[in-house]
């Protein structure tokens, strides 16, 4: 679990998933980095995607300055990192994320890339505005990361210690939410507002009604971007699987290729658990799900695992099931993040889960750690299936 937990440390980055913004012609951009945090001789990498293909460039710091130039369609999300393998830099501490878009972008690094500020183009100016509002919470987040690093190996293996730490992260994210909603309300014409709503939806599915309302207040220009349209489709799918709604049936093959229907579990509380073998936070959550399953399986509760693995990771999926001791039914159409059941329920981030009651009604979403146990205890403590 220790290695998995190291990988699962949540980042404070504003953006997780990005969609291309299509324009008719490429326009030039210049990215200039300055400041004492840039040491002469350091190698700086610039990483971003165009048409789903990762592009990389590098340069050497001279006179505490680096420069990148190029052409781009609209805007793309990217990052700069120092000296390290750019393909793994997102898991490292000293990395700075921003938007590459036409114009002159200035990155100022006082002591590290992580603590840089950015200005010069509309999207990045808005990003800076939001990040400044979140700065006090970011400081608390950094402290939580340091607290994690200070844990002994034994503490990192302890399920209660991990649950407490994750609860503290969750508290910080909850305190971010009013700040983020306020930004969206005051910036209805900002692409960053759109991305912020997407991130909030991924972190907390219980915010869907508020996110829907906030989305509708965005300007038509923002809502009609490819990203805006995709987000609305996902919000709509999530609204159809909100608490109190009857769960939509689906069928997927189990590990032996036999079709399994969600409706096969009618009459029990069933937790639809969306995960994948390669997802470190999912694997870290599995002990909690396993503990709940073992505690309540004889009281009218079961789990249906739905994996985001694909054909290339099928063997890893089967191995993870065995290694993690997951004895409940596991299904997957092996289409990765395009899993049909995930689309049906508006799931865009894993681990995620949905709890369905014996009648087939959705009663909870994304209940994790000790909350999963307390929720089930409240529903099943009488020993009744209700």
From TrEMBL:
Q: Known Gene3D superfamilies for this protein?
A: Glutaredoxin (3.40.30.10)
Q: Name one GO biological process term.
A: cytochrome complex assembly
Query: Known InterPro entries for this protein?
Result: AhpC/TSA (IPR000866), DUF4369 (IPR025380), Thioredoxin-like_sf (IPR036249), Thioredoxin_CS (IPR017937), Thioredoxin_domain (IPR013766), Thioredoxin_ResA/DsbE_sf (IPR050553)
Subcellular location field: Cell envelope
Q: Which residues form the Thioredoxin domain?
A: 241-386
GO molecular function annotations of the record: antioxidant activity; oxidoreductase activity
User: How is this protein named in the record?
Assistant: Thioredoxin
Please give the Pfam families that the UniProt record associates with this protein: AhpC-TSA (PF00578), DUF4369 (PF14289)
């Amino acid at each position: 679990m220790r290695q998995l937990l190291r990988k699962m440390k949540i980042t404070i980055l504003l953006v997780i998933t990005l969609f291309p913004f299509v324009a008719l012609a490429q326009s030039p951009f210049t990215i200039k980095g300055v400041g004492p945090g840039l040491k002469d001789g350091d190698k700086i990498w610039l990483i971003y995607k165009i048409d789903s293909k990762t592009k990389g460039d590098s340069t050497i710091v001279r006179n505490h300055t680096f420069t990148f130039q190029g052409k781009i369609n609209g805007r793309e999300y990217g990052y700069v990192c120092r000296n390290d393998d750019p393909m793994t830099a997102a898991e490292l501490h000293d990395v700075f994320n921003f938007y590459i878009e036409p114009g002159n972008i200035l990155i100022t690094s006082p002591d590290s890339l992580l603590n840089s500020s950015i200005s010069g183009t509309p999207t990045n100016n808005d990003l800076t505005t939001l990040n400044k509002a979140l700065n006090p919470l970011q400081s608390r987040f950094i402290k939580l990361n340091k607290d994690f690093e200070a844990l002994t190996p034994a503490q990192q293996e302890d399920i209660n210690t991990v649950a407490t730490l994750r609860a503290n992260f969750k508290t910080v994210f909850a305190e971010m939410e009013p700040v983020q909603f306020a930004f969206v309300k005051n910036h209805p014409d900002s692409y960053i507002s759109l991305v912020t709503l997407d991130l909030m939806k991924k972190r907390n599915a219980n915010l869907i009604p508020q996110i829907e309302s906030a989305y509708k207040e965005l300007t038509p220009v923002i809502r009609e971007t490819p990203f805006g349209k995709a987000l609305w489709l996902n919000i709509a799918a999530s609204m159809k699987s909100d608490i109190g709604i009857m769960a939509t049936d689906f069928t997927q093959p189990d590990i032996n290729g036999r079709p399994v229907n969600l409706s096969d579990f009618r009459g029990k509380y069933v937790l639809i658990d969306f995960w994948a073998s390669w997802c470190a936070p999912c694997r870290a959550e599995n002990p909690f799900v396993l503990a709940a399953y073992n505690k309540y399986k004889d009281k009218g509760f079961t789990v249906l695992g739905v994996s985001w693995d694909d054909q290339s990771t099928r063997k890893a999926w089967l191995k993870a099931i065995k290694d993690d001791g997951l004895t409940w039914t596991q299904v997957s159409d092996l289409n990765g993040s395009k899993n049909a059941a995930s689309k049906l329920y508006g799931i865009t981030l894993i681990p995620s889960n949905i709890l369905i009651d014996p009648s087939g009604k959705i009663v909870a979403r994304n209940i994790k750690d000790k909350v999963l146990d307390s929720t089930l205890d409240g529903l099943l403590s009488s020993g009744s299936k209700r």
